[in-house]
TrEMBL record:
Transmembrane segments: 7-27
Organism: Flavisolibacter tropicus
Protein name: Beta-lactamase-related domain-containing protein
The keyword Transmembrane helix appears for this protein: yes
The keyword Secreted is assigned to this record: no
Keywords on record: Membrane, Transmembrane, Transmembrane helix
Beta-lactamase-related domain boundaries: 170-439
The organism's taxonomic lineage, starting at the top: Bacteria, Pseudomonadati, Bacteroidota, Chitinophagia, Chitinophagales
Amino acid sequence: MRLRKKILTVIGLFVFVLLLFGIWYAWRAFPIISGYGAKNMASAIYLQHRKPADILKEDLGSFPLSLGTFTVNEEDSSVTGSVWGLAKRKAIYRKGLGCTLINGYSEDDIRHQQFALPASQHPNADSLTWPYGDRVNDSLPPRVNKAMLQKAITNAMQATSEGKPAYTRAVLVVYDGKIVGEQYAPGFDKNTVMLGWSMSKSLTGALIGILVKEGKLNVNAPAPVPEWKGTDKEAITLKELLQQTSGLDFIEDYANPSEVTNMLFKEGDMAAYTAHLPLKDKPGSVFYYSSGNSNILSRIIRQTVGEQQYAAFPYQALFHKIGMYSALLEPDASGTFIGSSYSYATARDFARFGLLYYNKGVWNGEQILPTQWVQQSITPSSADPLKQYGYQFWLNGFSETNPAQREYPDVPSDLFYASGYGGQHVYIIPSKKLVVVRMGLQKIDGNAFLKEVIQAVGG
């Protein structure tokens, strides 16, 4: 009898612990599931003009996102997410700004925010050849093997990830400044804007570079972050934010609730949230990839250019100068662009951005970015032993002489790239005259894909 009572007690305690864990997990995870789904469904509907059923199946169909219920309200252009009726989160669409999660601010306050957006621009004319227009010549350079290139593109479009469709949505290959290959998944085309995820960091880095060029920022000076004055963080430099060596105690983990998921889906002012985190390491001593650093950079841009010019600045200083007329940055509830994660553009416009860096910051004769800035952007920090990161760009570290020690062993060491969650990539390979864009839902074998592309353009 006593043994049975002990067994029941142990079972009861075990069930109680499981229940506590379930409550703890739900408290942390459910708002993130609701927020992620509401935000991404809203942007997919109002920016990409996709059907809710397709979004639920492809983008939100995997566990734990499949736990969520997402309701579209056409009257106020919003999507509300919840998990079993709990942890409701709402994302609203605003023309010219995309979609924003309501966090930390009232919906009324967010809807009444004033943004001095630039005048709308006409898309690139079909009468002009890409990249200055949208006309693409059918003729290929002699070095390009059309059949081999098409095979490489087809393989990427049909690629799987862990036995499931990777949902590649766009592949675009630029050789020597010309589009030589391009393909889209059903429902997507050259006019469909796509989510860049962390490729947004590279855009943010470029905007910082423009302000450095104008003499408004100094990468070696302490970052102008008000919360850090008089603290152990006040010596963190702009360069350390760019190189992901700030030392802030920020966890970049999307599989579990962490600082990055809290920031993106539970916080209204993402830069302020990150700025208040404590130091974990001495600034400049340890490389750790952090979306929080990029959002602090985004707020620094806002503070530097001022409220009147801020909303128009990315478009007037960068996007429209290089013909990225589809590009859009989405703000958080505080009004700061989410420089870590939420940029949208067509595959062709992301390729234009890659071409700007391929051409060392020059566009149609104008030096948009200083050549030195581009070089610094692809130079690793001394705190990065794998030599894999520059100024918000990834590099093909670790070894120039031993391909096996590189991230992409079959690709030249001069490869650098913008990279986003789910396998969004703008690859720039100067030695092969290539800019390659791949957009999709899940990662594919990028090394194998680029190897095939390189072989198709003459090796």
